[in-house]
Write a structure and sequence with these properties.
Layout: E1 2-6, E2 10-15, E3 30-35, E4 40-45, H1 46-60, H2 66-74, E5 82-83
Antiparallel strand pairs: 1-2, 2-3, 3-4, 4-5
Length: 87
């Protein structure tokens, strides 16, 4: 688990593959995106995670501002259904 991005509005954490775990469906890793104001989150993996990563990589190539990063991440907020639960 690695914190990739943390602003006043959003946090993005990357969960990497765990090759030591034996399973019929191996984990491909993914991203947890948290909307701090809406207090909701989403975990994406597979093709959606790949698309998210490609978009972030393209954006990073332009040296984006925090506002530009937040605007990109905000595209995923409509998918967020899970309330943020702290434990």
């Amino acid at each position: 688990m690695q914190m990739l991005y943390n602003s006043d509005n959003f946090a993005v954490v990357q969960f990497e593959n765990e090759p030591h775990v034996v399973s019929e469906t191996p984990s491909r890793g993914g991203y947890e995106i948290v909307d701090k104001f809406a207090r909701k989150e989403i975990y994406i993996e597979g093709l959606m995670a790949e698309s998210f990563e490609e978009g972030v990589q393209a954006l990073i190539g332009t040296s984006p501002s925090e506002e530009e990063m937040d605007d990109y991440i905000e595209r995923y907020t409509s998918l967020m259904q899970h309330p943020l639960v702290l434990h």
